[in-house]
Amino acid sequence: MLIDSHCHLNLLKDVEIDDIIKQAIENNVQYLQTISTKLDDLPVILEIAEKYENVFASVGVHPCEVNGHCEALQVLKQSQEILMRLPRQGFAFPRNDAATIIELTNHPKIIGIGETGLDYYHEPYDKKLQKDSLLHHIEAAAITKLPLIVHTREADDNTIDILTSEMRNNKFPGLIHCFTSSKKLAEKMLDIGLYISMSGIITFKNATDLQEIVKYVPLDRLLIETDAPYLAPTPMRGKQNEPAFVRYVAEKVAELKNITSKEVANVTTNNFKTLFSKFTNYLNSSD
């Protein structure tokens, strides 16, 4: 069994989600997590997660979306679609972003916090806004103990500094998603207890440095993902990515670590269940 730990089903174009889920299952991808990049997308994300038993979700704001965060919060305050999906326990939108995220995790199928992080590649960017947003997400992860899903691009040093410092103050589970950074970042993140998630990029011919990092990361700290609809792996490059293609990531990990694809599937599935404990508890309660 495979799990696609990170995809964006709401961003797929010109496809039926029914077909995408069917294709995933036919390729042994039994579960997937569709990731939030901005809060005003949550109604659509939750609609998908509620419709499909094997789809779970996260809540968070991508660093490239933080400029629109305040507007998104105003939308949320009036969003009956989201309110109807939350447990009816005197729900009220609270004072700050961390509290808002924490409230939204009351939804039974929201199992992670993010994606959040730092992105100094896509311009224009505001380092202070991105840092403030990341700190709100870290606070939410520390309080809820739901994993922090971290995006980092061209921001390794600041990512290391913030996550290392905050981990000293408040322990939180988490991972670096779609890892494309240096071995130094991998080392530092493993040192503070985070997991590393690899995408289809590791199948690219020019990804030799990243392939060496796959070999370096302990198997018991590794996750796999598609980041669909982006980054389709070889041999599907040029196509829209989808959760079914995570098997190519698993196959490449197996090749690089000189083990079987079945071993990769088993270990990364167990890693996901360990890290995303709310997911595991949900499955156990459904038995």
TrEMBL record:
Q: How is this protein named in the record?
A: Putative deoxyribonuclease TatD
Question: Which residues are involved in binding a divalent metal cation 2?
Answer: H151, H177
**SUPFAM superfamilies xrefs:** Metallo-dependent hydrolases (SSF51556)
Name the lineage. Answer: Bacteria, Pseudomonadati, Pseudomonadota, Alphaproteobacteria, Rickettsiales
Q: Which organism is it from?
A: Rickettsia bellii (strain RML369-C)
Which InterPro entries does this chain map to? DNase_TatD-rel_CS, Metal_Hydrolase, TatD-like, TatD/YcfH-like
Family named by the database record: Belongs to the metallo-dependent hydrolases superfamily. TatD-type hydrolase family.
Residues annotated to bind a divalent metal cation 1: H6, H8, E115, D227
Instruction: Write out the entry's keywords from A to Z.
Output: Hydrolase, Metal-binding
This protein's source sits in the domain of life called: Bacteria
Q: What would be the name of the gene that encodes this protein?
A: tatD
Q: Keyword Transmembrane on this protein?
A: no
The molecular function GO annotations come to:
DNA nuclease activity; hydrolase activity, acting on ester bonds; metal ion binding
EC number(s) reported in the record = 3.1.21.-
- What is the enzyme's main class? hydrolase
